[in-house]
Amino acid sequence: MGFLLQKIRADNAPSDVSTSQRESSIIKKNTASEEITSKEQIVSLPNKNLIHSAVVKKRENKELPNDSSFFADLKPVQVISNCFNEGTVPDFGLHIHRFIGENNYVRSCRWSPDGNWLLTDSVDRITRLFLYSDSTLNLQHKVPLGGLIYDTQWAPFATQNCFLTTSQGQPIHCWDIDGKLLASYRGINDMDELEHAYSLSFSLDGQCIFGGYRNRLRIFECERSGKQTREIKTFVKGKFGGQKGIVSALSMCPTFGGVFAVASSNGSVGLYSTLTNSCDCLLNGSSDGSAVTHLQYSSDGNLLFAGLRKKASIQCFDLRMPGHLLANYQRTVETNQRFFFQLDPFDRYLYSGSSTGELLIFNCKINVQLAEDGKEVEPTFRAKCSKSAVAGLSLHPIHQLVALSTGQRIFPDLLPELFPENESSSSSAHDQSVWGSDVGKGNGAEGGEWTEKENGRKGRRSELDNSVKLLKFYE
């Protein structure tokens, strides 16, 4: 009996070996196929090392012409206005549209990191992408948004080729240069409700998105759309200090990762860190509570520039001595718009728009050395660019080009037109007295001037200049 059992086991042994070999070979094939698919997935994902290794030509450090006549005669090399006058502005049944027509003023403009694209946003709730090729801008894509646009931001690296938008009642959207939606980032509050961001910024490595909300910051991971991953409160009810109100502007420190400046609608500027998740230093930007609308660090991270709403200065803080106001760069800001400014990559010149339609250029190297603490600094150069306000401004990262966005909200005197019985006779005469025979032309009046009328009231005659303009300082 034992002999028969051994014989049976011997006969079955090879088959067991073959089956085990077959099973092992199947396992190896499966593991090999899994390795192949995993490699394919890794290749299909964006390589973070490639993002940082992209080489982009930098802007040359050239001195501007030291001639006032050059800036007096400076003319734009290109003006784009037709695409902003296509009847895309919703009128909401307002009476003002009967007299001034469409007023689609351009709120901001931003160059992409590689300088190939220009992004604009305007009152019609549309962001427009212009391709810069052969020294000209050409409209390529339009991205309509659901509400009033609060802020836009390009990704910091040229290889990412995407930008962010935030608008009223909408989450933060990420778009590619073809106008396709890539991801959405939702700021969710304690009641599980969606809130919209008022300001945007990328981290230095481009892996995180910072959104400014009311009384708090929310941080999102770029690779994962959806709800925020972290939250930093700028104000807590019942506690002393903090920054109460809307986070109106953000700026990342270029030398210390995780350190950033936060501006609030109450006029304060705070320095925060992702290590502490709290405010490390608080600067009083405005004594009367005017909102801070724009922030920018110098390239070495030692200086912080802050622009205020309806304030005739850009404040410069020396962060080596926190709270120390180094200088006030003077500019004319008479409207409630957000007026942008920008330092060149070498911290030599500070460019800013103004409500008088001028491009203002400050020589920071000279003025900071000569100025006393907190002293007012006047512009070194002035260039008249528009009859309307110059709110948006962006320096080309490679060429000696400046992109400007112009336009502003107009408030004409509508009292005579509110009465139908006077509409047939007095309204036409009133329109000519306010706007001129040809939208402000023919009266010899400059755009934006306030003129006294026969009835003692004031009317505004101004031409609508809603456009994007390119200025070149060198050939």
What order do the helices and strands come in, and which of them pair?
Layout: H1 2-44, H2 48-53, H3 68-72, E1 78-80, H4 97-100, E2 106-111, E3 117-122, E4 126-133, E5 136-144, E6 149-154, E7 162-167, E8 172-176, E9 181-188, E10 194-195, E11 199-202, E12 208-213, E13 216-221, E14 226-227, E15 230-233, E16 247-252, E17 259-264, E18 268-273, E19 278-284, E20 292-297, E21 303-308, E22 313-318, E23 324-330, E24 341-343, E25 349-352, E26 358-363, H5 364-370, E27 375-377, E28 381-384, E29 390-395, E30 401-406, H6 426-435, E31 449-452, E32 458-461, E33 467-472
Parallel strand pairs: 9-14, 23-27
Antiparallel strand pairs: 1-33, 2-3, 3-4, 4-5, 6-7, 7-8, 8-9, 9-10, 11-12, 12-13, 13-15, 16-17, 17-18, 18-19, 20-21, 21-22, 22-23, 24-25, 25-26, 26-28, 29-30, 30-33, 31-32
Structure at a glance:
By secondary structure, the chain is α+β, with helices and mostly antiparallel strands. The chain contains six helices and 33 strands. Strands 6, 7, 8, 9, 10 and 14 form a six-stranded mixed beta sheet that branches.
